[in-house]
Amino acid sequence: xxxxxxxxxxxxxxxxxxxxxxxxxxxxxxxxxxxxxxxxxxxxxxxxxxxxxxxxxxxxxxxxxxxxxxxxxxxxxxxxxxxxxxxxxxxxxxxxxxxxxxxxxxxxxxxxxxxxxxxxxxxxxxxxxxxxxxxxxxxxxxxxxxxxxxxxxxxxxxxxxxxxxxxxxxxxxxxxxxxxxxxxxxxxxxxxxxxxxxxxxxxxxxxxxxxxxxxxxxxxxxxxxxxxxxxxxxx
Length: 235
Prior knowledge:
The protein has 235 residues and is α/β, with parallel strands linked by helices.
């Protein structure tokens, strides 16, 4: 174990890493236990009692965070010429088709989200090996393959995120920035946790949501009292 810096020691003294905190308390602690100078992202991690290898236990969903993510989301809209104006007006950073398909084939993936219309999915599908591992593949389930391309761009820019369970059974999501108020972070985190809780597979035996933590890019994790949250005791 490497020696802790003075900053880290000061941080560890401000909270009890063995304690389970209410969501509000946990969000209130974040500013105190973050020791970076930059505006760190805030992340929630929840450990699920699912087997992601089973198709009926593959947890995936979307949620719109009431206060957005705090990040500038760069959106590429892949569409036919008749949809270019709609996507551009909605605020897409890059709009087009063949030239961007070629750029991506050449290794360009300098965007956060890609949206497209169903008619171009055959061309986009051929990029699966590049886009898939980076989490950039458009998907009808997350609303990123749609005829309503303007709405899709607006939603993504406005704080809509998608999430899915990883192979270890954990779902991660960025729910804001340290510069947000604790209340904004708590409301975003609550929206995410509620969205995950609604996706409990009917076939699952045993506990679905086992534990949850919240942290920033450079802070220790704070345990959230998930039982209190899910029972509605914390409003």
